[in-house]
Design goal:
11 strands, globular, alpha+beta, Phosphorylase Kinase, domain 1, 58% helix
Length: 460
């Protein structure tokens, strides 16, 4: 029957397992062949062969993801932000999965809206565009108009995708195991496939629940209510369910367009510094992090203002973790190694009886451009690969292996920040910027504590 999910999503665990299993065999076999040839090749030839194998497999994985969608594509989107696993050439190919997703046919979407909201789109909205203007791994977005004339964006989850997610979560383990072997035997690096799988599972459960996204969105609206340069969409709760969410429509240009050469540098600088401040504010002041930093989730409006989109997955850190990161930032800026070491213990990067020297050396290697006021700094001078290799060398030599869960999300967020700053090419005094962020967070923390103390006092 035309329009059934089985025509557009590869469903059925056996079929999906077969496709993923075949992919795993192809990817794993290609790396095995590469490893077998290494003893007979020069070092330069080994590096070129490994890169070529990376590229072939990345293309193969992207092509297969177009068939499977759902969890499999979400996995690739996550992998495309893992600079610690793949070289830039592979990440560039994998990043295609973030934007080039074919939409579902409208009859299927119409039935999903009626099933979730009780009426078809033409009964709920003054107008509803049948052609999606954005499509992703789990759903797609349509522009519509409310009866009062307001324009909204309606995100509809693909019918049956929650079922395929359950299948894919079981099937992708084989692919992750292949990546583990690749990391161990070919790339000489350790990949925590169990941790990666757990992260994928948790995020998918969150992102499949649009009512959860609505709650996340309202949290961010409250957080940034005092910043008129940040735009967070408004959720229309009466037109929202677990699989459909209706948001105020935000008009603007995707952040990715500001990374292009022809954009005025002054505007690029505004975007870079605003994004920098918004991210650090989430970490140091709120302890609440938007965990999906790819450029499709940000728009720049005409004012300009920075609009944040897609709140399917956020991370809320315990207050003690947020406070410890703030203390760590202050200690690093003040070159107070003793206080920084205590903060690293509180963050579970090291145990209380460990020497804090190695982890502090790692942090200083990563954060070197912002630790001292040496004037303006060009982020394009920051060699992420070289610093990453140095960090890995320190960790291996000094046996620094602890990786608390909050590290994963912060790493992804700051890798995204590093990428944007380099592409935007904004030369600025980043030491003063981060110091201002720390001071603002300290004031906000003191104000909250003062408010709580005052409340307790009046209660007595």
């Amino acid at each position: 029957m035309p329009g059934k999910p089985s025509k557009h999503l590869t469903t059925g665990r056996t079929r999906r397992a077969l496709k993923v299993g075949t992919l795993t065999t192809q990817v794993g076999g290609s790396y095995l062949l590469n490893a077998l040839k290494r003893p007979f090749q020069s070092e330069d030839r080994q590096r070129q062969e490994t890169l070529d194998t990376h590229l072939r497999n990345a293309l193969l994985i992207v092509e297969r993801s177009k068939e499977l969608k759902g969890a499999f594509m979400k996995l690739l989107q996550m992998l495309s932000m893992r600079h610690d696993l793949f070289p830039p050439e592979v990440l560039e190919i994998l990043s295609v999965t973030q934007s080039q997703v074919p939409p579902m046919p409208y009859p299927m979407i119409r039935r999903q809206v009626e099933k979730e909201l009780g009426k078809p789109p033409e009964k709920l909205f003054a107008s509803f565009e049948e052609q999606a203007f954005a499509a992703a791994s789990l759903g797609q977005v349509h522009r519509a108009t409310l009866r009062d004339g307001d324009t909204v964006a309606v995100k509809i989850q693909y019918p049956g995708v929650d079922e395929t997610v359950g299948q894919d979560l079981k099937n992708v383990k084989a692919l992750l195991q292949t990546f583990t072997v690749i990391g161990r035997d070919v790339l000489r690096q350790k990949i925590d496939s169990d941790g990666l799988y757990q992260e994928l599972e948790e995020r998918l459960v969150e992102e499949l629940d649009y009512e959860n996204e609505a709650r996340n969105l309202e949290r961010f609206r409250e957080m940034f209510a005092d910043d008129d340069e940040v735009v967070i969409p408004h959720c229309h709760e009466n037109l929202t369910s677990r699989r459909v969410i209706t948001l105020s429509y935000v008009e603007g240009y995707p952040l990715s367009e500001f990374l292009l050469p022809h954009v005025d540098q002054e505007l690029k600088d505004w975007v870079a510094i605003k994004y920098f401040r918004v991210l650090w504010r989430q970490v140091l002041e709120f302890g609440v992090l938007h965990t999906d930093p790819h450029p499709g989730n940000y728009l720049v409006t005409f004012h300009p203002k920075l609009a944040m989109l897609d709140f399917g997955s956020i991370r809320i850190f315990p207050e003690e973790i947020r406070a410890a990161y703030l203390k760590l930032a202050r200690a690093l800026l003040d070159h107070d190694d003793e206080e920084a070491g205590r903060a690293c213990v509180a963050l579970d990067y090291i145990d209380a009886d460990d020497d804090p020297g190695p982890i502090l050396e790692i942090l200083k290697t990563i954060l070197d451009p912002v630790l001292d006021d040496v004037g303006d700094y060009d982020p394009r001078q920051y060699d992420s690969v070289e610093r990453g290799m140095k960090v890995a060398s320190i960790a291996l030599e000094k046996r620094v292996f602890k990786a608390p869960g909050h590290r994963v999300f912060l790493l992804r967020a700051f890798i995204g920040l590093d990428s944007y700053l380099q592409q935007l090419g904004t030369v600025a005094n980043y030491h003063r910027l981060i110091r201002e962020c720390v001071e603002d967070a300290e004031r906000a923390t003191a104000k909250r504590r003062g408010g709580r103390s005052g409340h307790r006092g009046s209660a007595r």
